[in-house]
Amino acid sequence: GALGRHGNGIVNPVKTKQRPQMMGLGYGGFKERANMTQAELDGGDDDNDAEERAAQERRRKKALRRPAVGKNWKRDGKKKTKRVYKSVDEIGKEHEDEEEQRAAPELVIDMRGPHVRVTSLNKVGELVEDGGGMGGEGDGWTPTGSASTLPELRWNMDALVEHTESEVRKIITAKKTAEKTVDKLEDQREKLAQRVEKQKSEAANLESLLDVIKKAREDSEETASVSTWPLSAAQILVDAFSSLCEKHELEYKLHGVARVAYALGAEALKKALKRWKPFQARSSPNTITTAELVPLLRQWRRVLEGGGAGHSAKLYQELLEDCVMSSIQIALSTTPVRQFEGPISLLDNIRPALPRSMYMFVLTEVVSPRLKSELSQWQPTKDPLPVHKWVHPWLDILPPHLLEPMFTTVRSKLGQALRQWKAKDKSALILIKPWTNLWKQTGDLWEFLARFILPKLRALATKISVNPKKEDPSLFLAIVAWNDVLPNHALDSMLLNDFFPKWILALKSWLEAPAENDQKKKEKFKEVAKWYKGWKGLFPPALLKHRVVKTHLKRGLELMGAAVSGKSLDPILKTLAGEFQQQKAALREQAALAGEGSAAAASAAAISSRRKAEAKQLRAAAARAAGGAAPGTSFKEALERFAAKVGVEFLPNPKKGYRDGSPVYLFGRCNIYIKGQVIYVHVAAAGGGGAWKPVAIDDLISMAKK
Q1: Which pTM does this prediction carry?
Q2: Would strands 117-120 and 662-667 be described as parallel, antiparallel, or unpaired?
Q3: Apex 319 CA angle, 318 and 324, nearest 5
Q4: N or C: which end of the chain has fewer CB within 10 A?
Q5: For 697, what's the count of Cα atoms within 13 Å in the CB-facing half-sphere?
Q6: Measuring CA to CA, which residue among 225, 238, 299 is closest to residue 265?
Q7: What does the DSSP 8-state code read for residue 228?
Q8: How many helices (H) and strands (E) does the chain have?
């Protein structure tokens, strides 16, 4: 049961006392106590019990303080245990006595009958099995096999069985837990053993790495002091690190061996590349050629980029910047632009060893600016070397976006030079013909020819004279020489309108001229045939396939045949007249498709609309630059791109210097300078001099092309 006299458990249980409803705190001396004594819980104070308990406590404490009798000098305490010594025989005898006692039957006292009976459990079991009594007849007790027989004993036995089963289960559970613990510990032991072996292997591999690196460094230093080949030390290092990268790839990446390779390789390459001759083709004992350097650099690229980390590519770029790029830039910057063989060979050879970003940097920041600068100083009328001789070799190397501004500069300068050009002069054809295919691809050829070439050739075609007595085919040859440059319809149109009518008329007059006799007539026909073959031989082979040329030569041959046969020439001339009108209409259609003739106005309107849109974009770019919305694009850069699109030359003008602190540029035929986002153009006065005035983009374009 519970503790306490009343079975209440603790002496002072926690109990609350409810305050009457609507009563304030402390009203009328009402006491609220959470912890109350048992007497208070019982409804009153038991003073007698309290006094009795207090007296008992005092007596107990006094008895503890009182010394023991006969031992006044010593307090009562624990008795000292007496140590007893036993022999082995005594212990064995005691053990045998205990075994005999355990073997003796356990007595059972039966007090259920009229007499007290003493028996044992064995006899009780026999009596239960036999169904007899424990004593004589009339003892009043006969065991039965029912559940009510010996209930206390049965309960005790069941309790022992349950307790034993519980203990067995606990033991089984503890055994399983111990087995699991052993398995886990065994797994941990194996893992730890594997980790230890792995760490030992890694340590051994790392030691081998360090040994290889140390040996490679010593060998490279020793070789550098003995060998005459400058790249020997760098070659030994790169071979060693290549072997490490292949055999110990994991450790190579894990421990960042690429950084060690970079440090040692950069030091060796810096010393070796002092003897590098970028443009030298043949090797010598004390110099390095580009062909020898590139395979070594490609090996270093595999070594440094094999590090596996994100910085591996940067390590190779840093190696190139420290050892190679400065030499390349100096070589390209100090070589004359027109001596292109060495730089082009260098770039072709070094390209496999350079990352694309660095290769494009060289083209954009070194090669392209030098070519642009040389083109800005090029004078077509005075330079004896054609521009294509030193620009075209770069076509396979430079990307299109770097070539387009150069093409614009070439067209602009050629256009200015052609203002003074005479159509009979073949120098223009020599300069323009190499650019034909390139300008066809960019769509700029027809516009250039229509502005600078065709007007003068058409004027020259009108001056062609066909006189069998006084032949001068120089004008005709000057025109047909442009066969590979001019569009077919343009050249056919000039021949159809300005040459073949004169040629047919001269042939007709000669054939109809009277002869004194048959002999003279035969000689005349022989001369006509010779004259016909001579003119036919002046046509380029490609031009002979044109429909206009084939038709007129065929009709000329028919006229000669009719004259020899004595037939009339009028039917042939009528047929030729009809064909003339058909061919003229066909050529007009081709010209319209090309943007000439009836379609010229529409084409010009489209070009004007496009240029106005580009000018609007330029003004928008200027506004963005003024507002700070495009920090990477300046107004000058936007104007430069716009000039390239509209085909206007935009170059610095060193002769004019500076104006208001800003450099003066040549924009077409105008001198301009930029102040903020405003363009100022120099307007010449009638009597000389002039003034600088702000100008709009559209007006500037029209002024630049006057």
Answers
A1: 0.56
A2: unpaired
A3: 110
A4: N
A5: 22
A6: 238
A7: S
A8: 29, 8
